[in-house]
Amino acid sequence: MGAAPYYALDTHRVKDGTDTGGKLSLLLTMSAAYNFTKHWYVRASWNRVMTGYDKDSDIYLGGIGYRF
């Protein structure tokens, strides 16, 4: 698990042309891995970008890996 500040370089504009809020958000991450063998494993991660407005984002990542 981890948390860190996230600074957005681009912001979403609403119809009246104003900014949606601050560019600084919070990034939360949770990750887990399972070893099938000594070298092969699978990993899943969940990331959430928490903003100060209603545009929070969830990002799900998964994959297999090989340790040398």
UniProtKB/TrEMBL annotation:
Location within or outside the cell: Cell outer membrane
Residue ranges of coiled coil: none
Superkingdom assignment: Bacteria
UniProt cross-references to InterPro entries, sorted A to Z: Enterovir_OMP (IPR000758), OMP/PagP_B-barrel (IPR011250)
Main location: membrane
Name of the protein this chain belongs to: Outer membrane insertion C-terminal signal
Organism: Paraburkholderia agricolaris
Lineage: Bacteria, Pseudomonadati, Pseudomonadota, Betaproteobacteria, Burkholderiales
